[in-house]
Amino acid sequence: MPPPSDIVKVAIEWPGAFPKLMEIDQKKPLSAIIKEVCEGWSLGNHENFALQNADSTNFYITEKNRNDIKNGSILRLTTSPVIQADAMTVKGELYAWPHQWQRRTYWLLLLCFSFGDLLSFTLTAFVELMDHGIVSWDTFSVAFIKKIAGYVNKSAMDTAVLQRSLAILESMVLNSQDLYQKVAQEITIGQLIPHLQGADQDIQTYTIAVINALFLKAPEDKRQEMAHILAQKQLRSIILSVSVPSHMPSICTSPLHHWFNLSLLFPRFLLINHVNPAMDFTQIPPGMLALDNMLYFARHHQDAYIRIVLENSSREDKHECPFGRSSIELTKMLCETLKVGELPSENCHDFHPMFFTHDRSFEEFFCICIQLLNKTWKEMRATSEDFNKVMQVVRDQIMRALTQKPNSLDQLKSRLQNLSYTEILKIRQSERMNQEDFQSRPILELREKIQPEIMELIKQQRLNRLCDGTCFRKISSRRRQDKFWYCRLSPNHKVLHYGDLEESPLREVPHDLLQEKLPVADIKAVVTGKDCPHMKEKGALKQNKEVLELAFSVLYESDEYLNFIAPDKHEYCVWTDGLNALLGKEMTSDFTKSDMDTLLSMEMKLRLLDLENIQIPEAPPPIPKEPSNYDFVYDCN
Fold first, then answer.
1. 529 lies in a domain?
2. Which long-range contacts does 532-536 make (Cβ < 8 Å, 24+ apart)?
3. Does residue 277 have a pLDDT over 70?
4. Please, which residues bridge with residue 523 across strands?
5. Do 458 and 426 share a domain, yes or no?
6. Same domain, yes or no, for 417 and 294?
């Protein structure tokens, strides 16, 4: 039985593969036949392929001439004429290059890829060649730019072609202002958004890279328009879902469109340039962004702004925090920390989701940090000379809070509240002591050797302070009285001299004016707090906690005692440490521990100064054997 007239038996070739014998049903659409052929060789994107005669004519098979196919014909699967034309556009641009070796390089690359997707491989070759920087980007025609932009604007495009096209557009924009103008006419942010919503992470990355490039090269008015579009909440959600923080667009707020009389703000703003305050905002960064932040803070956080102004108004001039200067330097620090205005880095992996939780996230971030700066200034009791020190502490606080990647601005604020100046000091001290070098055996042995010397130094300082003496206030069980008494240790450390005074002295009281004496040898013990006899009396139990923490007593023979109320915590630590040192007991006050840590750290650093960047061995080097003779000793005679 003869085969149906609609069935044609042919052989089909594909470069690099064995030919296939197939039966073509002429009733089927030509696209369905090509799809079936592509599936036989596991080729995707069948719409990019076509069939042609394998004879010398190389005619393409179309719906019009398909009936000319005879039994036994040999056909060839090849790229479609549309793709061939697109590739030839790129070929034409490359072939226009003036140097013969450049054209040879192109043809070699094209030859290597001739058995694959011609367009995507041609674009890949184009990107690789342009990366060498030998040919200027300005040499390319408008037709070529439109063709590349067309691939990006198509709703359905091969992934490889789309990726290469986005990479080419980014390079065009970044390398030529003229090409930026032409690309900006062909590509809009609205046309790029659908690529961000896809599932391919590489496409998302290249798309945001193009957005960044367009934003960086745009003039000021166009940049503000783009910033407004990118700041829309729906778009922020899309970008947030794309895990490509290294290409996050750097969006700055707009400059002020009006001026006002800054001289009215001088007393509280404390700017740097008092003659022409506008000059304070000319340095970039931060430029006008600092003034934007100051205005935003004053308008949207009015209570916090008024509180800062009033707090600084009540301080002494030297302790006043300069709001204007602080705002400028803080804005500059935040720009450096977040790399605002810098080109995207492919090696950066910092991603802060909190910036997508508010319409004005950068300004809100500034408002949180300026309040932190004022709080830290107050905790450090800083003066204008300490400005740089305060900024270093604030930078440390912000960096440590950002390291924890807070999900919202409220979380950031909560973590900054826990990082007070005192806490930062503790963390720094702990980090220094936990460094690997400070935990090695030789270092620990050196610390143990130095500690007795440091403790003896602290002991001598305490005894010297006791020799200088201190004025104490007498407190009765009924009420506070303006009576004073003075106590000091004799220079030979053997006697305590004390006596009453009519008023607080302005200088040290000589020994001969102090009538009472207590030999140190008669002292039995030193007690503190609730154990003191004058704290156990009925009326004294009503004293507040502050007095209780400053009380100590010296017990001597026949159960007699000498009662003290120190004027402050510092004097309390000095006297209790000094008295314990006289009795041969350990000094245990917080003041002694702090002095020990400070002095020991300083002494260790000084002794290890010459060993910086030198690896300290864990074990001492071996002692060499004694020489067989000592004839090498020089005879001075």
1. yes
2. 532/563, 533/561, 533/563, 534/563
3. no
4. 556
5. no
6. yes
User: End of a domain among 90, 119, 154?
Assistant: 90
Report residue 34 as tokens.
């090509």
Pick from 44, 37, 13: nearest CA to 23:
37
Kindly state the tokens that stand for 626: 């004694």
Domain count, the chain: 4
pLDDT bin (cut points 50, 70, 90) of residue 101 is very low
Q: What is the DSSP letter of 383?
A: -
| pTM for this entry | 0.38
> Mean pLDDT across the stretch 322-340?
86
- 229, 328, 348, 396, 412 from 402: Cα distances, Å: 27, 21, 15, 10, 7
- In a shared domain, residues 509 and 587: yes
Alpha helices in 404-473 (DSSP H): 409-418, 421-433, 441-468
User: Which amino acid does the sequence have at 199?
Assistant: A
CA distance 117 to 110: 11
Cβ distance 253 to 292 under 8 Å?
Answer: yes
- Produce one character per residue of 48-78: b if its CB has 16 or more CB atoms within 10 Å, e if not: bbbbbbbeeeeeebeeeeeeebeeebebbbb
Nearest to 196 by CA among 151, 166, 161, 160: 166
pLDDT at residue 257, as a whole number: 31
Q: Please check whether residues 378 and 292 belong to one and the same domain.
A: yes
Long-range CB pairs of 405-412 (<8 Å, 24+ gap) are 405/351, 405/352, 405/353, 406/352, 406/354, 407/353, 407/354, 407/357, 408/354, 408/357, 409/354, 409/357, 409/358, 409/361, 409/364, 409/365, 409/368, 411/354, 412/354, 412/365, 412/368
28-to-9, 173, 486 alpha-carbon distances in Å: 14, 47, 116
- Where is the domain boundary, 215, 241, 267? 241
On the 0-12 / 13-18 / 19+ scale of CB atoms within 10 A, 592 is buried
State mean pLDDT over 116-144: 71
Chain-centre distance for alpha carbon 600 = 32
283 and 431 assigned to the same domain: yes
Alpha-carbon distances of 322 from 71, 285, 310, 326, 385, rounded to whole Å: 93, 19, 13, 6, 11
CB 562 within 8 A of CB 553: yes
Which runs of consecutive H residues, i.e. helices, occur in 266-353?
266-269, 288-300, 302-314, 323-338
Residue 317 covered by a domain: yes
Strand ranges for 511-550 from DSSP E: 516-519, 523-528
Residue 362's domain comprises 277-435
Whether 311 contacts 378, CB under 8 Å: yes
